């Protein structure tokens, strides 16, 4: 009777049956099947490398590449049949290759290769593809949508907040540019991670290197890598790129969470600054009048999920001895979940921003004259009074207006102003203009129209 372990890539050493629970516990195919395409791609390049060494004939290479193509078609057509003995995507693909072209030739594809360098290669290609084709593309679109709205809605003024208290008037476009700047930094970080992960571990073997002297530079070039990992021990065990991607996802989702929190607040009846489209809202099961910002609440909530993926894998990684250990199999579920969650979050955020409506009147109604107290202090600064002194004088003006129960500091008379400080003149009332207030702040990064346009131009330049 044939031992079932003989069908496994590692089966020759073992004669006893594997505990069925252990077989399930050990299997990764339920989630690493996602890498079927890059696994086939890696094997195609690797066998080309073996043929260059004379370990495969041209006919054998042709047969192998034909079989790999058929397997790819089966995965794409959803006709690939998985077997209980398929531990992972590597085992499944190699088993199926043997069924198509015969085990005699298929058995040669693993010559000098280990699943250790195979899976490391697969993951780097998979991540490279997701980061390039999905995350960077979608994030660029999110930033572009925000910038487009900022350009179109430049004339809308709103309160700027610190400590969630009204602080100074700003442009709505300035708030949009605020998050576009955050997301642009995220975009740049992702490009840096992409450059670091794009090096090849293939040809490192299990850990000690390749016994037949395969051309690792050829493999790297053929697979689109920028170079090779110079130490074979590092090549098979390094998962820093996984940590970096998940850290990036956690930081990005932190920004998305803050972005969502602001919009949730602005969408409440108490603020009424924005209104979400029906496509990104839900109702209440009990209260018919409710329109809930569930899209934004989910974005805020899923930031915790992505951070949990990172924290969990970091705890797994911290005690792993050199070099490859099965603990590293825990990288995939956390990484895949993080990638999918972040990708979907970018798409949802893009939909929210592109479809929400802004209530210009509500935003501008929320502006109050006390928000120009700093402008009042600046008025005296321009007359040569030290700011520390003008800050105190402006505060006295605010206190007097409150004591007299006036609606704002602009309602004090010139006589009342002069009682506080004789250096006030009638032209001080020109200070009480929200549009002029924002336009005074025209230094780089400010809320004046010219400053915001420069911010948006700079962001677009960084996305090119």
UniProtKB/TrEMBL annotation:
Single GO term (MF): argininosuccinate lyase activity
Gene3D superfamilies, alphabetized: Fumarase/aspartase (C-terminal domain) (1.10.40.30), Fumarase/aspartase (Central domain) (1.20.200.10), Fumarase/aspartase (N-terminal domain) (1.10.275.10)
Catalytic reaction equation(s): 2-(N(omega)-L-arginino)succinate = fumarate + L-arginine
Metabolic or biological pathway: Amino-acid biosynthesis; L-arginine biosynthesis; L-arginine from L-ornithine and carbamoyl phosphate: step 3/3
Ranges for domain Argininosuccinate lyase C-terminal: 371-439
Pfam family, one: ASL_C2
PROSITE patterns: FUMARATE_LYASES
GO biological processes: L-arginine biosynthetic process via ornithine
GO CC, alphabetical: cytosol
InterPro entries: Arg_succ_lyase_C, Argininosuccinate_lyase, Fumarase/histidase_N, Fumarate_lyase_CS, Fumarate_lyase_fam, Fumarate_lyase_N, L-Aspartase-like
Residue span(s) of domain Fumarate lyase N-terminal: 12-308
E.C. number: 4.3.2.1
Protein family according to the UniProt entry: Belongs to the lyase 1 family. Argininosuccinate lyase subfamily.
Protein's UniProt name: Argininosuccinate lyase
UniProt source species: Kazachstania africana (strain ATCC 22294 / BCRC 22015 / CBS 2517 / CECT 1963 / NBRC 1671 / NRRL Y-8276)
Gene coding for it: KAFR0A00950
């Amino acid at each position: 009777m044939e031992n079932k372990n003989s069908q496994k890539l590692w089966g020759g050493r073992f004669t006893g049956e594997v505990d069925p629970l252990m077989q399930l516990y050990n299997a990764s195919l339920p989630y690493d099947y996602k890498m079927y395409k890059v696994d086939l791609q890696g094997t195609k390049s690797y066998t080309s490398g073996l043929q260059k060494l004379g370990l495969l004939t041209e006919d054998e290479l042709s047969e192998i590449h034909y079989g790999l193509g058929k397997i790819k078609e089966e995965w794409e057509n959803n006709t690939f049949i998985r077997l209980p003995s398929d531990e992972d995507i590597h085992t499944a693909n190699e088993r199926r290759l043997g069924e198509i072209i015969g085990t005699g030739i298929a058995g040669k594809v693993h010559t000098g290769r280990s699943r250790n360098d195979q899976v490391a290669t697969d993951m780097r290609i998979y991540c490279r593809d997701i980061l390039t084709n999905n995350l960077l593309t979608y994030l660029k679109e999110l930033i572009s949508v925000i910038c487009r709205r900022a350009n179109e809605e430049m004339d809308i003024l709103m309160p700027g907040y610190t400590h969630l208290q009204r602080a100074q008037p700003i442009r709505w476009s300035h708030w949009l540019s605020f998050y576009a700047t955050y997301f642009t930094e995220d975009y740049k970080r992702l490009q840096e991670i992409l450059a670091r992960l794009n090096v090849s571990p293939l040809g490192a073997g299990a850990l000690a290197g390749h016994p037949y002297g395969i051309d690792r530079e050829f493999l790297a070039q053929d697979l689109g890598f920028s170079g090779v990992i110079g130490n074979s021990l590092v090549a098979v065990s390094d998962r820093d790129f996984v940590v970096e991607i998940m850290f990036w996802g956690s930081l990005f989702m932190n920004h998305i969470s803050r972005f969502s929190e602001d919009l949730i607040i602005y969408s409440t009846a108490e603020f009424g600054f924005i209104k979400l489209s029906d496509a990104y809202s839900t109702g209440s099961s009990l209260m018919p009048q409710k329109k809930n910002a569930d899209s934004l609440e989910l974005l805020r909530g899923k930031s915790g999920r992505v951070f949990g993926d990172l924290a969990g894998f970091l705890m797994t990684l911290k005690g792993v001895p050199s070099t490859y250990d099965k603990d590293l199999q825990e990288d995939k579920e956390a990484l895949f979940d993080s990638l999918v969650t972040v990708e979907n979050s970018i798409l949802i955020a893009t939909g929210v921003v592109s479809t929400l409506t802004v209530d210009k009147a509500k935003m501008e109604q929320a502006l109050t004259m006390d928000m120009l107290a700093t402008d009042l202090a600046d008025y005296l600064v321009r007359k040569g009074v030290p700011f520390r002194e003008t800050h105190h004088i402006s505060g006295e003006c605010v206190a007097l207006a409150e004591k007299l129960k006036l609606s704002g500091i602009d309602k004090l008379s010139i006589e009342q102003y002069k009682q506080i400080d004789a250096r006030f003149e009638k032209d001080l009332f020109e200070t009480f203009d929200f549009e002029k207030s924002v336009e005074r702040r025209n230094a780089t990064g400010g809320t004046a129209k010219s400053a915001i346009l420069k911010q948006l131009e700079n962001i677009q330049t960084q996305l090119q």
